[in-house]
Amino acid sequence: MIPVSELENMSEQTFISIYKTLNYWGWSWMLGEKPEGWDEMSNYRKPYMGECQTKADIIRPYMRVIARKVPSYNL
After folding, report:
1. Count of helix runs (H) and strand runs (E) in the chain
2. What's the rounded Cα separation, in Å, for the pair 30 and 9?
3. What is the pTM of this model?
4. CA dist., res. 24 & res. 43, Å (int)
5. So where are the chain's domains?
């Protein structure tokens, strides 16, 4: 998994491709290897779950950068 800071130099088309994959809870190969346990991870935290890492926790920082870099794309 590449650090969020490395997204800064990607093209708009790459951002859009990554966004489309992450938006459907998939992992984009352009972000490197999947985080450990990705396939078994819950998409988001449910009230009864307590503290655990979810796909939303991992995706959120990437989506923020993409939304900032491609504001014209209807994210």
Report:
1. 2, 0
2. 13
3. 0.83
4. 10
5. 4-69
DSSP 44: S
Residues in the chain: 75
Count how many Cα atoms sit within 13 Å of the Cα of residue 51 in the half-sphere of its side chain.
Answer: 0
Task: Give 49-61 as a 3 state SS string.
Answer: CCCCCCHHHHHHH
Distance CA 42, CA 38 (A): 8
18, two tokens: 């990554």
- Determine the angle formed by the axes of helices 12-23 and 55-69, rounding to 10 degrees: 150
Q: Where are the alpha helices (DSSP H) in 1-75?
A: 12-23, 55-69
Predicted confidence (pLDDT) per residue in 5-40, tens digit: 888 889 989 999 999 999 999 999 999 999 999 999
Tens-digit pLDDT profile for residues 32-62: 999 999 999 999 888 887 888 999 999 999 9
